Amino acid sequence: MWSFTDPVWATIFVWATILAAVFGGIGVICLFVSGWVGYQITGVSQRKANVQIAEANARALEAKLALARFQQPRLLSEEAMARIVDKVKIFKDVEFDCAGSPTHEATNLLTSIEDTLERAGWMALNNAGAVSITIPNRRSRGIIISEGVSISFDQSQNPHLEKPVLALANALNDEGIAVSATGNAATPINKQAIHVIVGAKP
Question: 201, 105 in Cβ contact below 8 A?
Fold first, then answer.
C-alpha cells in the first residue's frame, strides 16, 4: 500500500520543488527581460516621436517665416538708399526710364529706386510705351504685368551701360531686393537708356 511518505513521492516532491524554483526564476528573468525590452522600445519610440515633432515644428517655423517674407513689402530705407547712391553715383548722367506693376507695393518700390537714382545724378526719362501713366512731378512710367525686379539695356546700342547696370543690380541685391540684369532689352523706347522694371512681388 502506497503513501505520501513513500520515498518516491518524496523524490517527486523535491524535483517538483526544484523545477518550480527553476521555472519560477526563468519566469522572473523573462519578466525582467520583457520589461527591459519594453522600456527600450518605448524609449526608441519616444525619441523617434521627439525627432518627428522637432522636424514638424521646424517646418512650421520655416513656413511661418516664408509667409512673413511674402507678406512683407519690399522697401528701401533712407539708409539703404544712401548706400545705393554711394555705389552708383560714379555713373552720373546715365539715363534710365521706369516701368512697373500697378500694384501699390511695386509702385512704392519703383518710386524709391527712381528717387535713389536721381540722387545719384542719373537722369530719368519719360517712358512713353504703349501703356504708360503720368505721375505729377515725375516722369511717365510704363505699365507692365510681371513679377520681380529687372534692370535691362540694349547692349547692341550701348555696351558701356553694362557696368552701371551691374552696379545697380548688385547694390539692390545687397539691400535684399532680388534683381535680375540683362543686356538683351528689346524695346523701341529709349534705346540709349537703362530700363528699370518693378513687377509685382513674386
Answer: yes
Distance CA(199)–CA(135), nearest Å, equals 18
Counted residue by residue, the chain has a size of 202
2 pLDDT higher than 50 = no
Q: Which three cell numbers stand for residue 30?
A: 523573462
Residues 50, 82 within the same domain: no
* Residue 183 DSSP SS3: coil
Last residue of a domain, one of 72, 95, 117: 72
**How many domains does the chain divide into?**
2
Quick one: 187 and 97 in the same domain? yes
Domain holding 188, by residue range, is 78-198
pTM value? 0.66
Kindly state the cell numbers that stand for 34. Answer: 520583457
In the numeric block, the cell 518710386 is attached to 111
Which letter does DSSP use for residue 97 in this model?
E
